[in-house]
Every structure is written in C-alpha cells, then in structure tokens.
Automatic annotation (TrEMBL):
Boundaries of every NADH-Ubiquinone oxidoreductase (complex I) chain 5 N-terminal domain copy: 77-127
Subunit structure: NDH is composed of at least 16 different subunits, 5 of which are encoded in the nucleus.
Signal peptide as annotated in the record: none
Gene encoding the protein: ndhF
Species, as recorded: Pyrrosia petiolosa
Organismal lineage: Eukaryota, Viridiplantae, Streptophyta, Embryophyta, Tracheophyta
Subcellular location: Plastid, Chloroplast thylakoid membrane
Protein name: NAD(P)H-quinone oxidoreductase subunit 5, chloroplastic
Catalysis: reaction(s): a plastoquinone + NADH + (n+1) H(+)(in) = a plastoquinol + NAD(+) + n H(+)(out); a plastoquinone + NADPH + (n+1) H(+)(in) = a plastoquinol + NADP(+) + n H(+)(out)
Amino acid sequence: MAVELSSKSAYIIPLCPLVASCLTGSFSFFFPKATRSLRRLCAASNIFSLVVAMSISFVLVWKQTATHSIQQYLWAWIPKSDFRLKIGLLIDPLTLVMSILVTTVGIPVMIYSDSYMCHDQGYARFYAYLSLFTASMLGLVFSPNMIQIYVFWELVGMCSYLLIGFWFARSSAANACQKAFVTNRIGDFGLLLGLLGIYWITGSFDIYELCDRFFELTSNGTANPIFATTIALLLFLGPVAKSAQFPLHVWLPDAMEGPTPISALIHAATMVAAGIFLIVRIFKLFSTLPAVMSTISWVGGVTTLSGATLALAQKDLKKGLAYSTMSQLGYMVLASGIGASQSALFHLITHAYSKALSSSGSGSVIHSMEKVVGYSPNRSQNIFFMGGLRKYMPITGITFLLGTLSLCGLPPLACFWSKDQIITESWSNSPYLGLIASGTAGLTSFYTFRIYLLTFEGDFRAHQINYKESYTFSPPENVIHSWGGGQLDLLLKQTRNNFTSPEKKREELLEIANFGTVPTSRRGRSYETIHFYSGRNLLYPQESNSCMVLPLIILAIPTLFGGLIEINSVQKGYGLNLLLDWLISILSLPEVHKHFEKLLEILISSIPSLSVSLIGLSISLKVYGHLDNIFDTKADEKLGGGDLKIFLVYARNWSLNRGYIDYFYKIYFVRSVISISKLISHLDQWIIDGFINGAGALNLFGGESIRHAKSGRISQYLFGLVIGTVVLLQLVVDFPIPPLP
C-alpha cells in the first residue's frame, strides 16, 4: 500500500514546477512592481518546487528498485464516445530515470540563473518560463499515451521558442526563435501524421499497447510493410527535428541567442533530450522494421560526424558547444538505430551532466568577459578574445576542464563509459558506422580541447593589438540586456578597435576603468559616448560569484562519477551496477580483486577508442597549446604547409560557413517558398480579388449612374413610361412576331 501511495503521488512531480510557473507569471503580470521587489522570493519558490519534485523522484526510484513494477494511473478524458481517451501517469524505470535527470539538472541551472539574470528586467518572467519548461518536460516523460506525449511535446517546443527569443527586441534572438519554431514544425507535422497512421494500424494510442500490436501485425505480415515503414519514419521525423539531427539541425546553433542558462537546459535535459526519449520509449515499434532501424542509425552517424566537423573552427564559444551537442546527440540516435537503446539512454544521462557543466561554465566566462570587452556577443563570446582565464577564474576553469575531458571520453569521467559502449556496438554492427563513431571521437577530443585551450590557457588576448579581422561592436538595439538598462546607459555605438600601441590601449582602458567612459574625441578613431559597468576592474575578468560557481561544483560531481551508474535495462529495471559493486567490495575484501579485473577488462577493451581520443587531444594541444596570439592562421603554420594547409583552410571555411547547409536551404527552399508565396499573393491580389473588386466597382458605378438619372418627379417618370410604350409598340409593328407553326 505504501508503494502504491508513493506511486500515485507522482503527479506532484510535474505539478510543482507548473504551479510555480503559473504563480510567478500571474504575479508578474498583475503586480509587476511588487514582483520586482520580491523577485528573489519568486526565484526561491521556483527552485523549491523543483527540489520537491526531485525528492519525490528519488523516493519513487528507491521504491522501484524494490518492486521492479510498471504502474499506470489513468483518468477518462473522453469517456462517452466510440473514441475513448485516457490521461494519466506512467511510472516505469525509463520515466523515473528521465525525471531524476530533468530535476537534478534543472535545480543547478535555476540557482545559476539567479546570479546570471539578476540585473535583467525580465527576471521574474524568465523564471516563469524556466519552470514551465521543466514542467512540460516532466509531463512528457510521465505520459502514458501518444496523445498526451504530443501535447507536452508541443509545450516543450513553445517554451523553447519563448526562451530562445527571451531578448526578443534583439533581431538575432527574434530570428533564432522563429527559425527554431519553423524547423520544428516540419518534424512535429511528420510526428502528427505518424500518430494518425499508427492509430489507423493499431487502433490505440497507449504506448505499450500500440507497440505490442504493431510488433504483432508487422511480424505476422498483416500490416502493409511499406505503409508501416512510412508511418515509422514519420514518427522518427519528430525526434529528428527536436533533437537537431541532420538535416533539421540548423536551428540549434542559433538557439544560443537565448540566455546561457537556457542553453544549458536545452542541451542537457529538456528539448533535445525529448527526441531521444521518444525514440527509446517506442523503440519496440522501430525495432520490428530493419529499413527504419538502418535509416535511424545512418541519420545518427551523419549527424555525429557533421556536427564534429562543423565545430572544428568555431569562434563563438556557445556555438562550438552547440555543435558538440549535435554530434553527441548523433551518437545517441546511432546507438538506437543499431539496437543499443540502453547505451543511447546511458549516453544521454552522462552527456547531460557534462554538457550542463560546460554550458554553465561558458556562461560564467561570458558573464565576466562582458565587463572587459563589452556586451556584444561578437566579442564576449569570441574565444580568440579570451585566453589565460584559468588564472583569473580558477574554479570555472577547473570545472570546465572536467566537462571538456568528459566530452573527450577520457576515463574515469562520465562520458567515457557510455561513449565507449556505443563505439564498441557500432563496430559490431557495421564497420562503416564503427569508423564514423571512432573518427568522431578523435574529432570531439580535438575541438573540445581546442575550446578549452583558447579560452583558459595562454595569455589574455583581449588587450592585444593588430587584430587580423576588423571586429566591431554591433550597434546596440533596443534590447533588454542581461545586466538591465540601469547599469548600461549606451552600449558602444559605432566603435572600432585599432589602437596603435599596447601602452595606448592600457592607458585608455585605465581611463575607462577610472571614469566609466571613453572620451568622445580621439585622433583617428570614431567614438561616441560609451558607458561601461564600472563596478569592477575592467582590465581582466574575475571569478563569478558563489551563486554561479556553486552550480558548477554541483554539476562536476556527476560529471566525475556519473559514468559509474550503469543502467541494466530500461524495460526491467536499473541499478547502480559498477558504483554499487565498488561500494560492496570495500566491505568485502575478497571481492576487490574481482571488481578490479572487471574494471581492467573494460579499460583494455576501450584502448582503441581511447587511443583515437588521445590522438585528437594531442593534436589539439600541439596546435593550440602555445598560441599566445589571436590569429587562428598560426595554427596551420605549426602543422606545415602544402596540402595539409589547404585542407585546414577548407576545413575552417566548412566550419565557419556551417557546412554551407544554411546557404543551400536559403537558395533552394527559402527563396523558392518566398517566390511561390509572392506568386500566390499576386494571383490572389490581381485575379481573385480583382474579380471580386471589379464586380463591386461595377455595381457601385452602375448604382451611381442610375441614381443621377432619377430626379424623384412623377411627371418625368410618366413621360418616360409613355415614350417607352410608344417605342415598344412601334417595334412590334415594324417587326411582327411570326405565327407558331
């Protein structure tokens, strides 16, 4: 009875952040002044709601390990009709794993957001969106049927639209959220068609029921294989868009226009994780169709390789991490396509903590760099303006390094265990997929360690002179910045940095630090009044405050030890295998040797993939380990010239131009749609509207002419009647009607 009671209380998990979001949003809308004065209380209530949800999730996990049961609690939604639909809760191992993942990542991100967004005018609105985002994801993972999944699927997409475009007055953010929305419409439309098709075949929306019926119908040949394959591919189209798989990945890098806490949450435990969750949830349906499984695996393979190549030469810190997320999501989809859904889920968990740590670390860096180079993302997020930050931000640097090494796949960090499983199973399934998975591991080590080296090692480069490219501060738009309008009167209007000497640069920076403004008249340079936030030293960045550093430390713990938590089966249960074995071996000394042999066996089997990762890391260290200049071209000089240098130039152009995929879409899809829209608009305007407007104009002019012909005098009407009668009689006399035969 206790277990049943605890399981029934699972509805509190998505309800807590939902209530907090509604209350915060309502108070912010109806009582804006009071909400601004009590905004820290709003943040605390939202964080507390997620803590309650996390606590209940852990209680349910503890009960689940004892019972290994699958429970559903359903309520009739449409009871009195031929089409009956129920809503409720599904509690199984997969649900609880995802619930813990969402809550344990969401809590540090919410704590982190308090400091990151503290000066923003939309502080309370941000927390309302953030809680609604987590509530939507939790509702998605607890859904027992596909209709309920689709409802929360759309809510997750809506929240991502609101959060990516949080600073909607900035044109780049507005364009980014629209791009994410439109791209996901393609996948969501395919998912909707797939849901209708699966109901046509199975007659049910219940997840377990439709998977069992679909498996039975396709196994005995009752269902048309072509139709069944089409339906499965349409269902897969939803995760392709939501989890940023090729070719619908183009929205993910632009989604970095949102505040950095949102980037951490989207890339770790919410939006992109929703697609992987759906694939694992209905994996039994996909596994019955070899063509669909092959398609899934190759989409994942192409995505993981293309994401790695696109990240090789990125200058923007957050976009480099975005392409890293795209590549790691490709690993998960690839694993699902070769039948290793357990490994896909395992990598989803380990990657979530590692990427949340890296994304939050990047936000800490950007937060500090803005006070040195200004608030333009072209500067504050440009890794070539950074360097040597580990000396000024030691905690951020160490935690970011842990996240980097985990993404590289080095033991004993979290991503090593899951990535090695996927690479091993890829080789056993297909040598081509194995080659892609192993090669991508080397590329991942190269570009992730490149980001770390250029950001945290070497010398601080923002004060160096003779920049190769003419970086300028973007003109300030009417934007609500992350530090609000009160601290920043006017942002760097039409400014260009080309100082003639380091001494002059240091002198001007000292003036800025002392007076908070740059003089309006300087020889050879165009300045207008520039006001900086002058509360701290502007020459070098400084470590972020405790509200931002504490979440980094919290996320570093699962990044270190999360890989030791291995999932047995998403169908029958799960446990803390390797970690639990080691804890038992501490109490039982004879078991130490057995578990040490097990660990040694895992490490030996991972030598090939680990060697590839170490090679990529070594190349990155050789190329970028001693770069003290801002020039990226110095990197290829270190590797020599000739064909290798030409290859590096092509690789850089490929990466910086996003693989030319956006250009292709713009030329062949966007322009085509615009041309067709203009044609239809002209057709509607000149033909359809022209016909209707012409008929109306004809009636108008006809009525006006008749109106002027009428005087209202009866004598004139009688005279006209007589004249008409006489004319008619004369016509009858002149042209008599012939008699009928």
